[in-house]
Amino acid sequence: MAGSKMSVPLAVVVILLSVLLTGAAHAGPEIDPYKILGVTRSASQAEIKKVYKRLAKEWHPDKNKNPGAEDMFIKITKSYEILSNEDKRANYDRYGQTDDTQPYGGSRYGHRHDSFYFDESFFNFPFNSKNHRDFADSKYILHFNQYVNDVVPDSYKRPYLIKITSDWCFSCIHIEPVWKEVVQEMETLGVGIGVVDVGYERRLANHLGAHRTPSILGVINGKVTFFHYAVAKEHLRQFVEDLLPQRLVERVTDKNDLQFLNSWHELNKPHVLLFDQVPVVPLLYKLTAFAYKDYLQFGYVDQGLSETANLQKQFNINTYAPTMLVFKENTDKPADIIQAKGMKKQIIDEFMSNNKFLLVPRLVNQKLFDELCPVKQFHRRRKYCVLLITGDEETFSFGNQAFLSFASTNGKEVVRFAYVYQRLQQPLCDILMQNKDSVVILERRNAAGKALFKPVSAWNGSEEDKQRLLEELERLQRDPSILNNDAMLPELNNEFASMFVIRWIYASYDYLSEVIDDILHNNWREMMPLLSLIFSALFILFGTVVIQAFRLVAFPYARLPRPPKYVTILERLPKENKNFVEVTELTDITYMSNLVKLRPGHMNIVLVLTDASKNILLSKFAKEVYSFTGSMTLHFSFLNIDKHSQWMYTLLEYAQDATQIDADEDDGGNHKMDYTGYVLALNGHKKYLCLFKPVYTGEDHDSKSSEDEGSTAGGRSRSSSREDHPPRKSNRSRSMSTLQIHHKLDRLGLWMERLMEGTLPRYYIPAWPGLDKITPIK
Known about the structure:
By secondary structure, the protein is of the alpha/beta class. The protein contains 29 helices and 21 strands. This is DnaJ homolog subfamily C member 16.
C-alpha cells in the first residue's frame, strides 16, 4: 500500500521532467495544462488544487535554483488558472485553446482594471524565504524609520515608486519581469524606488494603507497614491507621470515667449527653455522641473510646431538634438546652454545646480538668504555677501541696473551679490543701514543670526561708487577683519507668502482629484474608513432630518401654509420679556391645523370679533391672555363673525347645552344674537369647547361674572334657577345690548384661570362643522 502511494509522486515527477525537457527544445505559444500539472482530464477540482500546491512549492524560484524554475513555475500557475476555472477548462477541452495570446500578466494599453491581483487564498505557506529574497529587490527594501526620515522628505523633490510584496507571494512573481524593467528605466530618470516586505514591515504597510500583495503605490510630497491599472510598462510610466503636478512646465510659443522670459523679475527665478522635436514634454524634463521647482521656472518649446519657428531662429536652435537654455536677467541672450542627443540626468542636474540663482537675486525669504549667504563653516569656505538696500520705485532703477552690471563682472566664487527692498524687509535694513549707506558687505557666523558686516557707501550707480566697492572687496580678500560691525540679524519676511493661498488651492484641487480616483478604484478594505465616515453622516442625518420629517407627516397641520399673524405689542411689559402675543386668524386654510388636527392636550383660544371691533378687541385680548402665553399647549386665534357667522351658529347647535343658553337670549328668534367678544376654548382632539361670554362690569355690579354665566349655562340646577328669576335675565340682556366694546373682555383673565384649572363646563359636539366658505354679509 505504501509502495503504491509512493509511485504516484514518482510518476508525476517523471512526467514533469519529460515536459521540461521537451518544453525547453520546443517552446510554443500554447501549453497543455493537464500535462504541466500531471493530472488526467477527469481529475476533480480537489485533486487539481492538491497537485498544484505541491508543484508550486517544489518549483518556486526561491526554493528551486534550477535555471528553468521560474518559467516552469509560471506554466504551473497558468495551468492551474485554466483548470480551476470551469469555463476556461471547458473551452480548452473543446477547442484546445487557452484564450491567452499575450504574455502572462500583460494587458492592452488603455484597458482599466480595478486591481492586478490573483487569488492566493491558499498560498500562505509557513516558509521563511527572507534569505532567498531577490537580490535586485534587496537594495530597495524600506523600513519604517527609513521611510519616515528619508523617503517622505525626499518625496518633495522626486516621486517614489514602491512595491508591496511578501514571502510566498506567487502573484508577485507574475509582475516581477515588468517591475524590474520599469525600475531600471525609472531609476535612471531620478524616480525613487522602494520595496516593502509585509512579513517583516507590517507597521510600514499599515501606515501606507497597503493590505494586499502585490500592490504598487506612488509617494510624492508625502502623499500616497495607489496604482490601479494592469501591470504593464506603459501603465506604470504613465502612473509616475500622473503623480507630478500638472503646472510644472509651461508651453512656450512665439506668442508668449516674451511674457514667459520677462517674468524673471516678478518670480525672482531664472527661466529654462527646452527645445525638442517630440510633441509631449519628456518625463525626464518633468522630473527635473519638479526637483528644481523652487529655484527655476521651466518652459517647453515644441520644434515641430510652426508657432515656434521664430524662437528657433532667434536662438539658432539645432533641430537634430534637444537643446536647453537658461535665461537670467538678460532675456535676449541665454546665460548658459546645453545640447546633447541623449541627455542624461547627471548632466542635467549639474547644469541646473550651476544656474539655480539669478546674477543678483532679491532676498525674498529666509531660505534663499541661507543658500545665498551660508553660515561660515571653515576658514577656507568663507562666503561673503554684497547686499544692496534699495526700493522698487522707478527712481532706483538706474542704481539697480548699475549694481547688476557690476555683479556680472565678478569672478570670485566667495562673493555673492543680492539686493533687498527696504520697504519689504524693514527690520533687516534698520540694522544694516548706518549713515544711509545702502551697500553692505556681510558674513554670517551662525544659524542663530549673528553676522559681521561693514557698510560701504551710499549707492547711486556712479563710477565712483563702483570703484569704491571694488576697492573694499580687494581689501576684504587681503584682510577679513575689516568687517568690524556685528549684529543679530532678524529672520526675513516671506514676500511670497500671499502666493501660499494660490498654491493651497492648487494642492486642494489635486488632492480632491486623487480622492475621487481612490474612491473609484480602491478595494473595499482600503475604503472602509471612508465608508464608515459616510454611513456615520447618513445616520446622523437620518436621526435629525428624516425623523423630523416623519413627525411632520404624523401631524399634517405643520405642512399647511401659515397665515399672516396678528401681533400685538404690549409696551408696558418689560423689554427683556416676550412683549407680544401671536394671534392667527381662523380661516378655511388654517381650520384643519388649528382645530381639527390639533395635537392631543392642546387647545385653541378663539376670539370672536367683527371688522369694526377687530383692533380694539385684539389689543384687549392680548393683554388679558399674555400671562398664559408661556404654556406650550395653548394657541390663540380669532374668528371674524362677519365672514363665518354660519359656522358659529352651527357650532352652538351641535353643542346642545350652549344652544339652550343662546335660545334663552334669542328674543323669540326675531333678534339675531351678537357674538362679538365671545371667546371659545376649542379642544380639537376630544371635540369639546368652553365658552366665555362678555359681561358688563361698569354699571351693574350685581351681574354675574362670565364664569358664573358659563356654569349656569352648563348645569341643570343653574338652568332651573334661571327659570325662577326671569327679571335678572332681561336686565342682563339690556346690559349686554348697551355694553361698550372695550369692556367686553374685562373678566377674560379670570375665565382663563378657571380654564387652566379645568373647572369650566365642557360642551361636547359630535363633529366639528366645516369652515369652507365665507358667509355673505347681509
